[in-house]
Each structure stands twice: as structure tokens, then as C-alpha cells.
Structures
1.
Amino acid sequence: MQHIPLNRREALGAMLAGSCAVTTAANCGSGAEADKPIVWDTHCHLSGEGRTPEEKLGNLIRYADRLGVDRLMVHMGYPIVVDPPTEEIRRQNDQAMQAIRKYPERAFGFVYLSSHYPEFSVQELDRCVKDGPMVGVKLWVARRCSVPEADAIAARAGDLKAPVIQHTWMNILGNGPGESNPQDLADLARRHPKTTFVCVHSGGDWSLGLRAIRGAPNVLAETAGSNPTTGFVEMAVRELGAERVVYGSDVPGRGFASQLAKVRGADVPDSAKRLILGENLRRILTPILQAKGIKP
């Protein structure tokens, strides 16, 4: 399959397609706000500009406002550490909770865990999700998620109705020893059918990644973190159904605009774009939000 990158003008045009989709009612007429799709970003980090967690998230929100992004899912703190020890995981979760408490109407937090430390991770999940403000789980590259040590985390997340978002990649030179691919996630998901998972990046090589998760109905594909190429969202909708695809940006490593352009410019129905941009993420978060007394 040939993937044709959009140039800058095409990407911006695709992002703005649909007129009122990412603009305000003042610009688009009195009925625009009611028709505006919700945009919930699955994938945001605190590694950008700012001196404190609150400043970093505040800057992300300022940029999100320009593009009509309503909610940011925040996970991991800073600096980025590959395979951090338990004390660093706890410190970064504290940073994320500090940030989201400043902006409860704009951001939700996902607890950063590692299957290198399954007992600690379950305790940290309870601290930050069951007894804290967070609503989901983030797993990165410490251990491949197909390992048995990930089972305790996945099971507890399912108990709490907290979705698990798992970084996946398919490196042409081979993944690192702890880096999961989409097949790893499909294997974990089959062992935990009551837990909802998100395949972050759809493996990078999405044409293979989407096929790997196709048979695991509790896994959603995520669009974040790659160039805006034609065919990605179209294939995801065709292979999985629009109900199993979520938008994400991976800011600040990637910009909101280029990642929104993948969805805005896709050759799929407007109804599918609405699901991908925010309705699917709101749906999978609704059970835990309601349990916490938060209006979805």
C-alpha cells in the first residue's frame, strides 16, 4: 500500500475541512456550537514548555484552544525516563495529578505504571485511580505487555473500569527488549476481555498494526504520533469499524494540527469522524467517570 504524505497546505486544509468543525460559534453562526464535534485527545504529555506541571499543562491547553480540542488525557511526567524505578514512577504520577487538579474541566489523568513492578503498580493504580483523580492506565516500554506480569495490572484496571493505553511500535530495525508491538497487546487483551485497551500509535506501521488487533474486540486503535498520511484512518474504519478508533496527538512531541488533519481529511463519513475525534473516548471513559461522580 502506498501512503502519500500531505504537504503543509493540504494538511491544514484537511484539518479545517467541514467549516465549523474546529471553530467557534462566533465564527460559524449561532448553531455551530451545538453541531461541533467533541474532541478528546487520548495522548498528551507534560514534557513541553513551562516550569511546573501546571504551567506545562496550561500551555498545552492554550494551544488546544486554538484547534478546538476540548479534553486532554495526560500521562507521564518529566523528564522522560525509559524503564524508571518505582520512586520515579510515583514522582511522575504526582506531577500529572498536580497538573490535572489545576484544570479539572479540561484534562483527565492516566496513571503511569510498569509491569516490571506488578505489585507496586497495582498499589499505585489504587492510589491514583481508585483513591485519586485519575481515570486510566498508561503503559510504555519497560516490559512487553504480553508478559504474565502485566496481568495483575490489566485485571485491576478492568475491575475499576479504567482503560489501559499501551504504547506499541514496529521498528524496522527491531523493537527494544521492553517495547510492545500490537500483537503483544492483542495477546494481553484476549486474556482480559473485560478490560478496554488502546493500541497507542497503532504500532507505527499501522497497515500491519491494525490487522494485528483486528481479532481483539476490546482493543481500540489510536491515530497519534505519525505523519498525516492518506489511508490510515480509512483502513482503521474499514478493518475495525469507526467505534474502535480514537484520535490522539502525542503532544508536545507532535502538534495538534497535523494529527487532527489525519481525521479531518480522511475519506470516511462525518459520523465516523465524530466517533474518532471524541465520542469513542468519552464512551469508554463514561463508566469510570460516572463512578467518580464526574459528568462525561
2.
Amino acid sequence: MIMEPKSDLTHLEFHIPSRGLIGLRSAMLTATRGEATISHRFLEYSPVKGDIPGRQNGVLISMGSGMAIPYAIFNLQDRGKFFIEANVDVYGGQVVGENSRSGDLVINLQKGKQLTNMRASGSDDAVLITPPIRFSLEESLEYIEKDELVEVTPKSIRMRKIYLDEQERKKFSRTL
């Protein structure tokens, strides 16, 4: 590692494996408020030196297929941060958010509000949904774990579990 001050800037040099560069640019730009300049070049082939740490939290996984109901998203916001907007089609096994705790959580985004013929004061207020987190392709590739995939279509970039069915995920989680 080299660290040299140059006027009001600091020049840093690191030896980082290529697999460690995925997501580094966005993290550095965020940490330096857009002031970092990054360049890299190949140094040498070398043996794998160890694991690169991944995310700490689990993900929120859609239980079923259909439209993501705003009322369901509103009630599940305390479980974590969402990657999708309301009224978007989702499917079972799709990663729709980041869990606030470790471990994956399967959630039902199709559960609507129970309708009654009685009106109560304040019960029909508009729900306030936090804006979703948007990922670029590089950020998605950095975010996923070994049991997840990134799905790229002309209209969207989505993350999903390899096994869409919850029972299959449990069955094959022992082999990963």
C-alpha cells in the first residue's frame, strides 16, 4: 500500500483482487462525496487470498406473484428497506428488499386492506411509503449472495433467489 499526500489530495495505491473491485467505485464515490478518482490495472495472477465480506442483513423475499399492494408495503416497512415501488408486478422468490435483521424473510406483498362497510375516522388515510432503493447493474452484482441471481431485462434489473419456491430453497440451502 502506498499513501502519499499531494497538495490538498491524497494518493493511495492498493493491491486488490479483481473480484474485490465489484462495487468499489460506487462505495468510494459515496464515501468521498464524489471527489475520488479511481483507476486500476492488472498486476499479476495470484492464489485466492480469502473471502471478501458480503452484506450483514438478509433480504425480503416475495411470497407470491401479483401486484405489490401499497397497504402491504406500508405495513412491512418496519421489516426493512424496499427495492420496489407500490403497484409493481412481483413474483414468488423475487428479492424485493433488505431485511433489517440477519436472515431472509418471506413476506406477502399481495395482502390488501380488510374492507368493511363501516367507516372510521382516519382509517382511510393515504399510506406514506418510503421511496425504494434503486440499484445499478454493478450494485446489484455486488449485493447478491451465492444463493441469488440478477435478472436483467430491457425494462428492469431485478434480484431473485436461485430457487423460487420456499421449500426448494430450504432443501437446497444445506448444499450451498
